[in-house]
Each structure stands twice: as structure tokens, then as C-alpha cells.
Amino acid sequence: MKNALVWICRILVGLLFIFSGLIKANDPLGFSYKLVEYFEVFHITFLDSLAVGIAIILCALEMIMGFALLIGARARTTVWGLLLLIIFFAFLTFYSAFFKVVQTCGCFGDAIPLTPWESFGKDLVLLLLTLVLFFNPDKIKPLFGRKPGDVALAVATVLALGIGFYTYNFLPVIDFLPYKIGANLPDEMKVPPGAKPDEYELTYNLKNKATGETKNMTDKEYMKTGIWKDNNWEVVGNPESRLVKKGFTPKIIDLNITDMQGNDYTQEIISNPFYNLVIVAYDLNHTNDEALKKLNTIALNLTENYNVRSVLLTSNSAQDVLALEKRYKLYTEVFFADAVPLKSMVRANPGVLLLKNGTVINKWHYHTMPAYDELVKAYFQE
């Protein structure tokens, strides 16, 4: 029975770690954004510049140790590593849930969004399964000899790290974000007729001015009892809001594109019925200048020869944009949006979306952006 239990835990823990690492390695830049949020919470922002590297290594460790467990290679070292990893992740998810700081932990990336409490519950189950293995390392029998096992681990290490480096430089293999190829952005922002919004409950803190008595009441109780008619009772502070029932939420809720004067151009840009080249550089201070110059030239040629509207979206200030224009002439229109949706549009700085009638026709990392002639041949020749 114990051998069977160890085998069950071994398979479940191994597969879950591989799956978790692989999902995050599909989008290491997105995972690094989550790490930066945690760095801010724990006041270790000096690690921000290392976030991508740490993300790739953490993803690789999950996959490597999960694979090592499945083949039974170096069992004692593996279970120690797995235990430390799951304790680390459980601490982060508990801290997020209890203190309400990072409300999406990114455990399974954007593929399976989990609340912090759901993530913590998952980590607790995984911790229990890992403890079974930790206290029974001798029952984890290797599938291969020592040398073949080490060779398999070496290959797995190269592959695990390679996946992270590849997706970081050439976009996620599977795009789980709302701006993926084929998505219609205006539709992703709509609430369908009859859809119910989130349902919240308000709790009022009340104090009796005459007696000093205090009590808490929900908004329904507050109205039902008619206590609001009694001038002796006053509301102290702001009411506390609690989500009672989750309603329909559009996939895109935070996209607001404006010009330098603050005028809203969101619908005009994303609903353009013709081809629209959107260059996304959410941070001009850390963008790839050479790539931006190349994209600027492509935008000029497309605008002149095919009347394509080309825009640059950034979260920087107008002063930063003016400084950029001093360095080299921009041929694109420049608009502004918050960094959060811009980071979701394309995992690159800069990256490119080709839109038509609100639909994402294609998107590119600056490393994979086609040359002008290739773009014309693929999309603009009749």
C-alpha cells in the first residue's frame, strides 16, 4: 500500500510541477511581471532587473525536478528541492491571500487564472503529496541507472531553459491573453445583453452618538431595519465592500487610448475597418532602439504606399515621447495607454500588432518582425 501511495504521489507531483513550469515558461515575461509585484511587496525592488532571469530559472527548476521525480533520478536531492519550492510558493500564495497584495499569483500563468486562496489551497495539497515523498525517499526507485538518469536530467535541463529563452525572445507558443491572434478587440470589451455584473455586499460601521454603542450591518440590513432614519446612529468611516457573487467580466476592461491632450481614441483605433499597424512600446526608457527605428521605417513605407494607419502606443509621459522624437523622427501617430494592457497586448518591448476591423490579424516580437517586402506580399498585395 505504501509503495502504491508513493507512486501515486510521485506521478501527481511530478506531472503538476512539469505542467506548472511549462505553462509559466510559455510566457516568462508575464511571470516576471508577477515577480516584480512581489519584489515591491517585500521591498526588494533591486531585483527588478533580474526578474526575467529569475522567472526563466524558476520555471526550469519546476520542470527539471518534476521530471527527475518521474524518472526517480537523485531521489533525496529531488524531494528536498521539491519541498523547498512548494514551501516557497505556499508562503507567497498565503501572503497574497491573507494580506491581499498580489491578487493573481501566476501559478499557472494566464492559462488557468486562480485567486490567491485557490492557489494556496492547491499548494497545500501539493505540499501534503510532497511530504509523503519526502519521508519515503527510499521507495522512489529510479527507472534508469545513475549515468543514464544524469544524462536524461542534463537533456531536460537544456530543454527546460531553452523553452524559457525561446518564448522570451519569440513570443509565447500559445497565447492565452485577450489580444491573441484572431481576437476581435471591440467584442472582447463588450458586456453581452442580459449578463449580470459582479454582486457586492456593503458593510456599514455604525455608532450611536448618544450611548456610544457600535454595530456592523450589511446594506440590506441597514435599509430593512430603517436605522438610517434614526439621527442617533451615524456611519463611521467608509463602508466595506465584499464580492458576493462573481458576474460577467469582459476580457478587456482596462484599455483606454488617449492622445497627448487626453482625448479618447480607443474605439477609433481598435475599430479601424482598414489595416492598422500598432507598435507597442510600453516603456520607451527600456525599449530596443534599433528595433523601434526599423519599425518606424516600415510604418512610413506602409503609410505612404498603402495608406495604412500606423500608431505607437506607450505608457510613458509626453515629455519622454518628445525626447524620443528628438533622437529620430517618428512617422507614427503617438498615443498613450496604461502599461498593464500594453504589456498584455504583446510580450515584447517593442512589439507589433496588425489590426483590421478590430481583429488581431497577426502579432510579432521585434525579433520576428517580417521585412517590409514580406509584409506587403502577405497582407497588402491584391
From TrEMBL:
This protein's source sits in the domain of life called Bacteria
UniProt key word DNA repair:
no
- Span-the-membrane segments of this chain are 49-72, 79-99, 119-137, 149-168
Location(s), subcellular: Membrane
Topology in membrane: Multi-pass membrane protein
A matching Pfam family: MauE
Q: Specify the Methylamine utilisation protein MauE domain's residue ranges.
A: 3-135
Which key words tag this protein in UniProt?
A: Membrane, Transmembrane, Transmembrane helix
NCBIfam families, per the entry: BT_3928_fam
Which stretch is the leader sequence? none
InterPro entries recorded for this chain? Methylamine_util_MauE (IPR009908)
Question: What protein name applies here?
Answer: DoxX family protein
